[in-house]
Write the structure tokens for this entry.
Amino acid sequence: MKGAWATLPWHSVMLSLLLHVVLYGLVFLICAFFATRQFRRMRNPERKSLKKSQDKSVEGGAEENEEDTLSQELIRFSGDPLPFLRETADADDDTVQHRAGLDARLYLRMVWCMMVLFSVLAAVAILVMLPLNLTTAKASWYPENSFLITTANGFAHPETALLFHTMFSVFITVSVVGVVYVLRMELAGHVKGETQAVPPVHAYSVEVQGLRLDPPVDASEVLQLLDAHPSTKGKVLDVQVVLDVTDLVDVVESARLLRSTLARYHEQLERDGARPRRCVGMFAFIYIGEWVDAIELVEKEIEENDTAAAQLRQSEQRIATGTAFITFETRQAAIDCIATFQDAKIAHAACGHPTFQPPNQPKPLPGQVAPLCRNPNQWSMAMATKPEDVYWRNLRFNKWHHIMLSVTGFFILLIVFSFIVTPIFVIQLFLAVGDEVIDDTSGVQAGSYQAYYQTSSRKSSFNKVTVFFAGILWPLLVLTINFVLMPTLVHYVVRFFGHRQVSAMRRSSYNLICFFMVTNLLIIPGLSLSGLDEFLSAASNVPIDRLLSQILFYGSSGSFFVDYVAQAGLLTAAFYFLYHTTSPLLVDWASGGHEKKLTFEFDFAYFYSSMLAVLAIGLMFASTVPIVTPFVAAVCVLRYYTDKWQLLTAHSTLRVDPAPEMTASATHFALLMAAALAQAAFASWLYVQGATFLSIFPMCCCFSIIILLAVPYTRDNLVVVNPRWEMGEGVGVEQPETLTTPAPVSYKGAYENPYLKDDAGDRTSKLWGALGGVY
């Protein structure tokens, strides 16, 4: 960052950075000590917490277990500091998948690969890159005794001195592409490549959208459509036309939450021996009102919900969603159906179906046959998603509704995060107070690093103590805001995007959290901007190569990113140690007094994003600020073992992601985009430095990644995995031998709406329904 760090001597900056890391490490060790102490006491109930002397005198007894002294606890901790991590560290991938689900296995596999990659890069950075930066001849204006001496800025002959840095950057990009390909092949193997005698039901099923809404289309009309062509005639196993059940979903989900509350009240009654009471009324949220018996109140509400649900199921006046799920007897029939009826106009011209209302003709009169398709432009037919992945509440939305809601929600989030919660406002406040420009830029070539350095070098009026604590506060505020506020807002807004699949909703949450994290943690601090207005101004007035190069110029001027990465690893790991092992009151409340461990839903969207933000920082500055690479490797190590421990001991699998391959594929895509952005910035940085020839190589890497992601064939076969069973997905995924395998009879009714059943509470216990439910 520009400001106080840019002009401080080398030893002062490194000493301050070292003290920061020591402080983070000390907090980490303190948290680990208390977490380990509580963990051992949970495993050994006889070793209770410290007792008062009067309690001991009353209980007495020569055989009573005495509490260990602090010195004994420290000796025990030094011998085995993190026993809870050790218990889960040796668990293999199959154990992780069995206990925490496929999404946990995919996440930990990605973190482990990044841990190995950045460990190798850290060794190269420390043994080769850092000594090279320290010993290479610098320009005459270069401040030899500053923090910049550890970076690759200001070389006297950059066109030759930066050759190895360019090779290192290209090696990083090739390694990332290779890791993504390996992860993608493993993902494809888990999702579709396993040998199965019979593929899953969604491999035989087709989803149709754009059907007539009023009156709703029935199954016989859909069968008439399919019988109009020889490739699909008589090959249908089941047809399910979906009606809107939004009101019913809300009632069923409300009843489920009430039953969970009732169970908790019964547990409280058994534990305390007194019936719990609850405040009701307009001001019940501030405990002002009438106090009634909580169990009787909830039982009455459950009875009312059940009665309302029964009445809604019997209602015959339901509007249509324009959606139907068709299950065929073979995969080949499903593929032929899509090939025949995917384009409504072509299919209508070929076989007369689907019928649709011409724009200039009046609507059919009562008693006349109504057209099947309400609008050819809204007609779509594709392979269906998994039955458990269907978000039944949102099937009333078509793709245009989804696009409109998503764009609106994105701009709302953009405005909120840009002008209200962007942590750079606080950072910029500390940077600006007491600073003044001291150097003249006349006679210096515009756009060069020398010009940047002379225009951004400032003298700070802060004393060293203030600078030290400000250096701790800046990254900590960034970490806190992006850890708590931003993911919560994104999850809330994404619920209203109109997604028709649960996995698509989770992928949108990941994409948005990842976008805002990378922007808040890398782009805005890297450009040293104070908000969206400055970013828009810079993007419109500054050439793109200069804008990208300034990320490396500003980012390598101080230790902000190194500080943030250190905090992201040590402090977040310390938080989870305390959160899961030293919060007995929280655990007791969350479990109703019957569990000794906290169970929660692991937010993969956030953890993927926070991991990718650190990796993006590492990819961006690995070649120019090699000192950041070991910290990124350390974060990967801590996150791998800490997150593995959480997933194996406290992760709730009540509502797992039915299609985790969507979020995992989005992570592969984002990781390559971060690598492409890093290469583009490095190429622009080389060009501004004067190494024009060397800048060609990272720019070629950048364009190669963009082409890889832009071409559907390479993207689908090398980067991502489609959760739908489409044809032409490549080696390891395609299963042509199953095209003629008959579908089991049990697949009939797989896409029947579970909320219309009398036992909807049991059938939907693992589905995602109401907006107010757990996300």
Summary: The CA atoms of residues 344 and 376 lie 6 Å apart. Strands lie at 205-209, 236-243, 277-283, 288-293, 320-328, 380-383, 435-437, 458-460. DSSP finds 30 helices and eight strands in the chain. The two ends are 37 Å apart (CA to CA).
